[in-house]
Design a protein that fits this description.
Elements lengths: L4 H12 L2 H12 L2 E2 H7 L4 H14 L2 E6 L2 E6 L2 H34 L2
Antiparallel strand pairs: 1-3, 2-3
């Protein structure tokens, strides 16, 4: 029996639900990067980064290619970069709404005095 689309989407977002994976995807939006550069940019132990890269690779979101003894990671497609940009826009709008609410709460506190 095929997996319902909503369940597949939930599994996809669950797979993205790790801070190291998100940071890797953000970095790879800029350019393909060797593991050593990813390690330098992310404060994580090498085995942890390796584990998170393996999850992303198995999901098909990133690709790995060997250049001599160096493994270079890249986004598998532009849709992932689009998703990361969309997430940034959504978060920006959410936080802007929270700032407006915070300002309104502060104003109510001033008016009550």
């Amino acid at each position: 029996m095929p997996v319902p689309l909503y369940q597949a989407k939930a599994e996809f977002f669950r797979m993205l639900g790790h801070p190291v994976r998100i940071r890797v995807l953000e970095l790879l939006q800029e350019r393909p990067m060797p593991v050593r550069d990813l390690l330098a940019a992310i404060d994580v132990e090498p085995p942890n980064l390796s584990q998170q890269l393996a999850v992303l690779r198995r999901s098909g979101i990133v690709t790995a290619s060997r250049q001599g003894s160096t493994v270079v990671y890249a986004l598998a497609g532009g849709d992932v970069a689009d998703l990361m940009r969309a997430a940034r826009r959504i978060l920006t709008e959410m936080l802007a709404g929270q700032n407006e609410l915070l300002e309104e709460l502060r104003q109510v506190g001033v008016d009550a005095k």
